[in-house]
Write a structure and sequence with these properties.
The chain has four helices and nine strands, in the order E-E-H-E-E-E-E-E-E-H-E-H-H. It is α+β, with helices and mostly antiparallel strands. The protein starts with a strand and ends in a 16-residue tail after the last helix. The N terminus is likely disordered.
Length: about 260
């Protein structure tokens, strides 16, 4: 199909295809530049959270100001109280770094000051889903915890099934609903892993103890890949447009007159 033609004056006539192709480098360059700005923002965010996480733990107030919670994301806090294992939530299935499936334990925590929060105690294997199979990990009595204050987790993808609170099936963290069911504040503290990686199995998993989260900032940062993708498309479509515009138009067909018979 002819992409573009020239008029009798020699100017090239732009077809819809040519116009669309000409817009591609502009759009993809803009998207690539936007991702550069997003990358800078994400790197600064991660650095700020890492600095915040390195600070000493502070006592968690009795009543947490939810409006200021984001300013204390990834801040270490101390709480004292006891677990309500009878109100435990299982989040998952989720896998660890070795690909083994399991669940994250989220347990309501009654504090000595009378308030109640949620504690994400850590990961347990799938075959330890039933609390009766991990009695050693059901800590009793008053405990002092130190963990990271979190506002939740990143939004689940469209492929993650919906939660079924009536069956206590949680595929994604719904902090508001969990807190309402447990009569707690919508605040979650994540217990940190203080065991070396090579001792996680013998010291925690084999002893039916939950595996806490690694002390790192877990935020997706795929902007470098997006930058490469958009700028590559910009270069590719620019080259395609150049080749198209350099291509000479097909020669104009001159109608031939039929010979006249006498």
């Amino acid at each position: 199909m002819q992409q573009s033609t020239r008029t009798q004056s020699g100017r090239r006539r732009w077809s819809p295809f040519t116009v669309g192709l000409a817009l591609c480098p502009i759009i993809t360059f803009g998207l690539g530049t936007w991702q550069v700005q997003r990358l800078r923002w994400k790197v600064n965010l991660i650095e700020n959270l890492e600095e915040r996480m390195a600070l000493d733990a502070i006592p968690l107030p009795r009543k947490v100001n939810l409006n200021a919670l984001e300013d204390f994301e990834y801040r270490k806090v101390k709480v004292t109280g006891r677990f309500r294992h009878d109100q435990e939530f299982l989040l998952g299935p989720r896998t660890r770094g070795d690909g083994q499936p399991g669940y994250f334990l989220i347990t309501p925590f009654e504090r000595t000051n009378g308030s109640k929060i949620l504690v994400r105690r850590g990961w347990v294997p799938r075959d330890k889903k039933d609390p009766s199979t991990r009695l050693e990990g059901l800590t009793e009595g008053e405990v002092i915890l130190e963990g990271l204050l979190r506002t939740g987790e990143q939004k689940a993808s469209l492929f993650v099934p919906g939660n079924h609170p009536e069956r206590n099936e949680w595929y994604s963290l719904d902090l508001e609903t969990m807190a309402k069911l447990a009569d707690a504040q919508p605040v979650v503290v994540e217990v940190l892993l203080d065991t070396p990686p090579h001792l996680v199995k013998p010291e925690l998993i084999d002893k039916n103890l939950p595996v806490g989260r690694s002390p790192i900032v877990e935020i997706r940062n795929n902007h470098k890949e997006y930058i490469v993708t958009w700028y590559s498309l910009c270069v590719a479509t620019t080259a395609m447009l150049y080749i198209l515009m350099r291509r000479p138009p097909p020669p104009k067909k001159v109608p031939q007159l039929l010979p006249r018979h006498v």
